[in-house]
Amino acid sequence: MLTGKWKPLIVYSLLLGPKRYGELKRAVAEASDNVLVQQLKELHRFSTEVLPPRSNPPSYRIT
User: Fold this and answer.
1) Residue 50: enclosing H or E segment and its boundaries?
2) How far apart are CA 46 and CA 55, in angstroms?
3) How many CB atoms lie within 10 A of CB 19?
4) Which positions ≥6 away from 63 have C-beta within 8 Å?
5) In whole angstroms, what is the distance from residue 15 CA to residue 19 CA?
6) ω into residue 57 within 30 of 0, thus cis?
7) Could you tell me which residue, 37 or 3, shows the higher pLDDT?
8) Are 11 and 3 in contact (CB under 8 A)?
9) Which has the closest alpha carbon to 22: 62, 46, 53, 63?
10) How much is the pTM?
11) pLDDT reported for residue 29
12) Residue 59: pLDDT over 90
């Protein structure tokens, strides 16, 4: 699940609290938008822990 260059950084960032997409992008600034979106989708698909944004303002979080 946490294989890859960016997933551990994404999860670490989310462990510190819910993050909006822009905040996650700053946390993994070297990753392209496409890569970040793909990594978030994979984390959500293979785990129920990373939830897509549903709040207002939208934010990702780990449950």
Assistant:
1) strand 50-51
2) 21
3) 19
4) 48, 49, 51
5) 10
6) yes
7) 37
8) no
9) 53
10) 0.80
11) 93
12) no
Q: Which one-letter amino acid corresponds to residue 56?
A: N
Place of tokens 């990702």: 60
Q: Return the pLDDT at 55.
A: 66
DSSP sequence for 9-40: HHHHHHHTS-B-HHHHHHHTTTS-HHHHHHHH
pLDDT in tens, 6-55: 999 999 999 999 899 999 999 999 999 999 999 988 888 876 566 666 76
Q: What is the dihedral of CA 41, 60, 19, 40, to 10 degrees?
A: -10
pLDDT value for 1 = 62
Query: Which three-class secondary structure state does DSSP give residue 41?
Result: helix
